[in-house]
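Subject: Predicted fold for tRNA modification GTPase MnmE, 431 residues

User T.R. writes:
Posting the sequence so we have a shared reference for the thread.
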Amino acid sequence: MSAADTIFALSSGQPPAAIGIIRISGSKASHALRALSGSVPDERRARLAKLTDPASGDLLDTALVLWFPGPGSASGEDLAEIHCHGGRAVVRALETVLEDMDGLRRAEPGEFTRRAFTHGRMDLAEAEGLSDLLFAETELQRRSAIQAAGGALSRKVDDWQNSILRLSAMVEAELDFSDEDDVTPAQLSVVQSAADELASEMKNMLDRPRAEKLREGVRVVLGGPPNSGKSTLLNALVEREAAIVSPIAGTTRDVIEVPIAIKGIPFLFIDTAGVRDEGAEEIERIGIDRARQQFDAADLILWLGPEGGGPKASNLVEIASRQDHAEYQPKSSDVLSVSPIAGTGMDALVTLLVDRAKDIVPHGDEISVNKRQADHLSEAQVSLHQISEEQDYLIIAEQLRLARAALDALTGKASTEDMLDGLFGKFCIGK
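User M.O. replies:
I've generated the structure tokens; pasting them so everyone works from the same file.
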């Protein structure tokens, strides 16, 4: 398959639906539109047209057709849209006719967006934001993703690039023309101060929570000995019977993961096997080992066992989850007392979880970076930071070049095919 092929796909939801939108992108898009509707409409103006099979002359549908000539289209190349009725038979008939046309083929997942990237309609950071937007399920995810898809990070990177280019020009002037009277030599302290300021800005962004946390959710692990009420509390938090509740010790033997959004924040609640040192048979011991692994990976641990008996971790919250039993009354005011069955204390627990999560997930109005972006941003930050103690202009010029290269990799100006395949392959067909 070639990038020069003209591609088509259904870009709206799967039929049946009120409307189906079929996109055609490539050099033969106008030919396809003319073959179906008899002519190409004025650009960016919807026109009602009868769509017919060019081979048999059969009427396929009456639809709206639109024409977007490249490079000013979503894909950066000639693009047509057909807004037809969204029945399965209608969509199937149109797709069959398009597939029979010479030079047209069905699009691969994410191929429209990849062509937009290739033609400079968006950079890699914007494409990653669009991917996050497509999979957004909470309001916080939507707000964060729409910033990235709209180019907030890309604009910030452009500002940094322009600043670094100005510093590079000053350094090059010092290296190449310092002996000429008409060029003002770059002052080392000015370059170092500006580079350090840029490095500090990048460090501030790197110190923010990662964008992946919005997609993965805040990992809240419920731990404690057998029959301490973990599964009961999990079911109360997610408001459904997600875990089996039984008085038999060792009922939960494996990890149970339940994603849920609370007040717009994504959480991943994880129920684990009861932790005990004695009395567990082989299968249960495997579950206990997995529980301890989950403690290490948790953002928050809700410990329902004896006070002071949980993992030694700063992110641990001790819970007395059986407030309705006198023997489970907490001894310390630091222990949160709740009763999942009666509902007592549950509002306080939810408030605590949401408050803690605000320090773990990015704020929706802040620019946040994912791991790939953070790796490249860290490379740029380190290169700029090293300039502050450097006296050699040749080395400073090289550090500035490395910083520019790292930012180019962040936005995709320098990227590998494997990485692009991995990103765009996650998109749906038609996007």
